[in-house]
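Researcher: I'm comparing several assemblies side by side, and this is the next one on my list. It has 233 residues spread over two chains. Same procedure as the others: predict the full complex and return the structure.
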Amino acid sequence: KQEVTQIPAALSVPEGENLVLNCSFTDSAIYNLQWFRQDPGKGLTSLLLIQSSQREQTSGRLNASLDKSSGRSTLYIAASQPGDSATYLCAVRPIYGQNFVFGPGTRLSVLP
Amino acid sequence: ETGVTQTPRHLVMGMTNKKSLKCEQHLGHNAMYWYKQSAKKPLELMFVYNFKEQTENNSVPSRFSPECPNSSHLFLHLHTLQPEDSALYLCASSQTPWQGTSGRVQTSEQFFGPGTRLTVL
């Protein structure tokens, strides 16, 4: 059964710092991996989708990488801003069995 | 309207009430999902519908009853809930995986609605 973990569980950084969020999954048989952000009490906003054949995707200050063989993805946020404060979740879409499996999230606080 | 919408946004109900949550997607997707998000727990997939047919039920208690009348609408009927069912209920949609021209399976992003905050008294 696919399991997804995220490290760290929480992170607090000063504004302007570059930071890396980590996501690990146990089964490399996936269609894709998707990163989301969630503001308190709100739905999830899609940030980046990486197909299993891709190594990375970029959108603005965000860059996500995927190493399927080692079961890892990282989300790099450049020049962090207070508006980036949210919970960041990663989810994989397994090829077999389940539809989507989510990690527990990393709660990010960017201090002005 | 665009994206995925959910109503109501907030719902308070007693344990003997019957209520329904509604989700509508305006993205032309053919797969829709219900998730439950409880405090301090990862997002839990409840039900999946592909082309209006239920394709996944993750051992969800029968007091939750989904309905998908067409590819754009999804309901979650609630009956005789327990206080531990209080949570944020999220609806999402995506395309079902398809074979691309390269022969590789292609998948789309999953898009979420804003959620319904449910409180069971």
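Model: For your comparison table: Residues 20 and 77 of chain B are 4 Å apart (CA to CA).
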